[in-house]
Design goal:
This protein has 133 residues and is an all-alpha fold. Helix content is 65%, strand content 0%. It has 7 helices and no strands. Helix 4 packs parallel to helix 7 and helix 5 packs across helix 7.
């Protein structure tokens, strides 16, 4: 499962939430991206650094863009569906709101990142048959 790889990046290697989901997904789905590519999503960590949209969700959206090459409109629809699925499952996509529910000082936002990984993996399995594990 994707969530099993998250700790490696988030806790052991100290990447932020966006980088962790990005890198764990890269590894899990064998996308072949260089680990340095995570710099692309660094700014999305901690809700874009200011508590807005969850960085793990943003990291997932970035990976979705790598996994699927679609025309703009169908891709935007797929992204919208992922965001709506995330919000329906967790009640919000706001980093600040998620922190108030799941964050603790010992493991930071690990619980949110794990839940985001579960949501992303299920979404991929249901919407992108090529990447089913």
């Amino acid at each position: 499962m994707l969530r099993d790889i998250i700790k490696e990046y988030y806790i052991e290697k100290n990447f932020n939430c966006a980088e962790s989901l990005f890198l764990a997904s890269n590894k899990y789905y064998n996308l072949g991206l260089d680990e340095k590519m995570a710099e692309i999503v660094t700014a999305f960590g901690a809700g874009m650094g200011c508590g807005r949209t969850c960085g793990a969700l943003c990291g997932g959206l970035a990976i979705l863009g790598r996994m699927i090459q679609l025309e703009r409109d169908p891709f935007h629809e797929l992204c919208t569906n992922l965001v709506e699925t995330f919000e329906k499952t967790l009640g919000t996509s706001s980093c600040n709101d998620l922190k108030s529910i799941y964050r603790n000082d010992e493991v930071r936002c690990l619980k949110t990142v794990e839940l985001a990984a579960d949501i992303f993996e299920k979404f991929i399995n249901e919407n992108v048959p090529k990447y089913k594990k």
